[in-house]
Amino acid sequence: MKFEDLLLDIGGFGRFQISILLLLCFPRINLPMHFLLHNFLAATPSHHCAIPHQEAFVNFTTEELLLISIPREPDGTFRSCEMFSQPQFYLLVNSSLQPENVSIIEHCKHGWVYDHSQFASTITTQWDLVCEQRGLNQAAATFFFVGVTAGAVIFGYLSDRYGRKALLLLSLLCSLVFGMLSAASASYTMLAATRTLTGVALSGISLIVLPLGMEWVDVQHRTLSGILTSIFWSIGNMLLAMVAYLVRDWRWLLVAVTAPCFLSIVCLWWVPESARWLIANGKVKQAHRHLLRCARVNGRKDFTISTEALRRMTTEKSGHSYSYLSLFRTPVLRKISLCSGAVWFGVAFSYYGMSMNLTGFGLNMYLSQFVFGIIEIPAKLIMYVLVNQVGRRQSQAWTLILSGLCIGANIIIPKSFTSLRSVVAVMGKGFSEAAFTAVFLYTSELYPTVLRQSGMGYTSFVARLGGALAPLVFLLDSVWPSLPELTYCGVAVCCGSMAFLLPETLHVRLPEGIEDVE
């Protein structure tokens, strides 16, 4: 007897499974509030060089003071990173004149003045992460995703070794502690360190929540449960826009998005360990207890099974040790691992490339965040139909390719066509989220139970490399303004094409052991 047959006897999608999925929605909602937090945490308001006080400036208005102290861009706006070494009083008479001697222009020496009309404070205004220090601003997001990358390796292996629930609890506790420490950071170095550790902890939540829920669900409802779980990510996306709109100080914003981890910890009390994992690892007594509880809650009170019958279901020798190398030892698993890794990299690289460019599409950044969140829900519902009708492989490949083409289209569309650019961007975000929804579901079906979390850990590791590189690509705009978008487009199209090399998993039972895959 396979575990799938056992699920049919106890109810593969009853009250028990629905309660698990609902309880796991809270950590899922919390994830995007951290993963996309950089947009608001490190937002850069308009700024200019601070002008030292002089007696001669007493009777000048702010506009006049800026006029004689700060050079202008060709479009008439004041420069953010340069000032005149001496006041240019003649500009008061004719402001259209441009100084011919560039030697009188120098970099800011006395700090910067920021526009606080939108943000009370961000890490940018806190530590002057502008101009020559602009790279440190984008690096803050990279540090976070480096942590997520490391966490994918750590928690992917440990949750296959020690269980899903215990490691999920550890992830939530560490996320709560390091999130609060981030809010109390006294320096940029402390913030970078604590955000990196927060990323490590949150990676465990990202990895474990979906498989823990899906391992209790039968084949017929696996897609539905995956889509429903991912919808809570989109809800978190929209909530982030609302929370960031209401909380404009970066420290309190960190507290606001971290505090819900406590609620997730409380909810985890009622979530059982994966019976599929318990049986695969020889812990049949615990599995027996959870299965009887599942049958009782689902109204299958006549269900009985002995621990001996469960012991015979153990797919591999109890205590057999697996590692990440096991993903590459056999030919079919090796091909799956290489191709799925490429797909994950492309999905994350393009998704975070779009998600962290809220001001590039002509909308208010809070509205962009909310619209990007709300467009994900119909994208997921459409994906539910596609993966069941068209199949996982085709859906995965084409959504990622179309996402890249939408990014590429906005390179060609002139910036004056604000409405058209916004529509294309929203379409691209929809395709991108559809690709992300598919890749979580698809990958969890490709790997066997004994290596599922290791497989998810490996692919998540590759994805987080994409997430870590995505914010740094924005710095390429100094080479050519459209180079970042061209990079996101090319990577998405190439990686999407790799999905055509993966096997189809539609209506296929979840593999239990390595021999099922081979």
UniProtKB/TrEMBL annotation:
Q: Which residues cross the membrane?
A: 139-159, 166-186, 192-212, 224-246, 252-271, 336-354, 366-386
Q: Where is the protein localized? A: Apical cell membrane; Basolateral cell membrane
Q: Which reaction equations make up its catalytic activity?
A: GMP(in) = GMP(out); glutarate(in) = glutarate(out); 2-oxoglutarate(in) = 2-oxoglutarate(out); GDP(in) = GDP(out)
- PROSITE patterns named among the record's database cross-references: MFS
The record ties this protein, via SUPFAM superfamilies, to: MFS general substrate transporter (SSF103473)
Q: Give a Pfam family name.
A: Sugar_tr
Single GO MF descriptor? organic anion transmembrane transporter activity
GO cellular component terms, A-Z: apical plasma membrane; basolateral plasma membrane
Q: How does it sit in the membrane?
A: Multi-pass membrane protein
Pinpoint the Major facilitator superfamily (MFS) profile domain residues. 87-518
Q: Which InterPro entries match?
A: MFS_dom, MFS_sugar_transport-like, MFS_trans_sf
Chief location of this protein? membrane
* One of the GO biological process terms: monoatomic ion transport
Keywords recorded for this protein, A-Z = Cell membrane, Ion transport, Membrane, Transmembrane, Transmembrane helix, Transport
Family of this protein: Belongs to the major facilitator (TC 2.A.1) superfamily. Organic cation transporter (TC 2.A.1.19) family.
- Protein name, UniProt field: Solute carrier family 22 member 7
